[in-house]
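Narrative progress, year one. The postdoctoral researcher (J.K.) led the effort to move from monomer predictions toward full complexes, under supervision of the PI. The following entry was the first complex the group processed end to end, covering 641 residues in total.
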Amino acid sequence: MPSAPSPPSPDDTRVLVTINALPLAVGILLSCSTRLGETSVYGRLTLAMGWALTQLVVLVGGTWWYESRAVSSREPAPTTTAPSRTAGGAR
Amino acid sequence: MTTYLLSAGSPDLIGPAARGAVIVAFLVFIGLCLLWVFTLATQDDDPERLHVAGRSLPPVLNGVAMAGEQITVVILVSMPGTIALFGYDGVSTAVDSALALGVFLLLAPRIRATRRYTLGELFSLRAEGPGTRAAGAVVTLCIAVPLLMVQLRAGGITAALLIGMPTETAQVVCTVMMGCLIMCFAGVADLRGTTFVQAAKVPVALATLTAVILVALRLFDWSPASLLSAAVDKSMSPDEYLGPGLWGHVTGSGPLNTLSDHIVLVLGTAMMPHLILRVSASRDVPAARRSLSIAVGLTGLFYLLLITTGFAAAAVVGSGPIGAVDVKGQGAPILLASEVLPHHSTSRVVLITLVACVAFLAVLTAVASVTFAAAVSVTRDLLGRKGRARIRIGQTAVLRLSVVALCAVSLLLTTAVHRYPIEFLLAFSLSLAATCVFPAVVYSLLWSGFNRHGLLWLVHGGLSLCTLLTLASPAVSGTTYALLPERDFNLFPLHTPGLVSVPAAFLLGWLGSARPWERITRDRHTVPRPAPDRSAPGARVDSGRNVASG
């Protein structure tokens, strides 16, 4: 019987955050700088436009990789994020 | 450019020949939709089954429905228009909205693990008490009502364009009629019912956008480069179209304004109460993560299609005519569908009807989801068990009444302010979610020192700051696109308050929880301890009482 998928490791989460945060930071920089963003890269495609589309592709690709890592992972589950009794609980 | 757009006339989008067929097909679709919706109505009284579908939704279904939550009427009609009018600035907005789901992907499994599904319940993770529950409900309502107003208005404008009467009166009548129809749906549906409609909307929307794009590409010999080139040539400013800074409000205050918009869009879209409710309907934590992964994929595809639709609209119709119909470009998808095929052709009628039907589905589901999440919050957080007992009414009845009341209030407000440009309310809702919800959820999930004081400081401080800064922003006064363009009390230079309010909310949460001044006072009145104890990592600075009881 196959084991249930376990949560992705913190390393995988870190990779996912990094590969999305860095392009986002560059994207914000490009959207703030008109001169840099308007640089032509291919035909009429500008650097800002190309980067924005790359961000979309990286997001979808990164998420697919993250999910596949979680499914194939056999590591033990980390501790739950549910609050302790002293932290209070609803209901 | 705005002046030019405002001075232009409003053309007839569909033409008298096709209008009758389009309207009949549209009404038939609405009738079928409502029939289907009423078959999904539930008589279930179990709160868990009513609110979160008994936490039994399969990951794929919930993931598709979660992607459907992103396909709102505002995004569907406004974003292609924004891209057609302002080029890259619209694309940047679309990318930020997609990235928001990436942020939610990181938090959603933790939220699901808590088994809590309203903001009030999440807020009381570290701070139990009626005050925190009420704060959660207030934030939910403050986010939901402006959002509902913008959605209802966009639905009304789209319907008015469709019937060929883009006048103010026709827009109000269409808004009221659509609002009443949606109220009927929202009043009988539960989360399971809305899930099916949301899930059905996604393939219909993706297929319609694909069809529109393919037909547009055919005009440019199937060359995306030619389409982009035509979009640039037919834009208002070809030299600046594919670079940043063309959008009116972005140019005002430079990079800080852009940065603030990015913060609000990414964090605000990720922290909407209806998304939190939906992720709680997953079977377990891995199912929640899987749902989000599916949603990210579908949403990425949706935004890619939306960006292409925007450029196709600019290439086929041109920025000028799009802006002439609506300054915000909300007529772009319908204009594109009506111009991309030859007039008097049946396929043109079919395409326009498809776009109109997707727009109706989008407004129906978006309003129903937001209303339902807000009503659940009212039922569980605001009234609570004691409140319901006092008024001798069951949880289901309270939920239904809340849904109808919320819809009615939003509809009333939308009608009352129909003369004003209220689109800034969308940014206000997102700002509130980014300021009050994101920091509170992050602290609640990740910081054990977060307590009741911190939460209340964060939520109330964030709410007040957000409201004040928005009131003093160029979105409300002092600019041509403001709510009150003839008044000028814009003291805060940014269009959205996120750049100031989000860090301020984090700071308030930390100050309220840690209360460093108490430590200083305590240190003065106590005998100094050995240095290693005081500098130990993770040493608590607040009293145990605060953590335990709030």
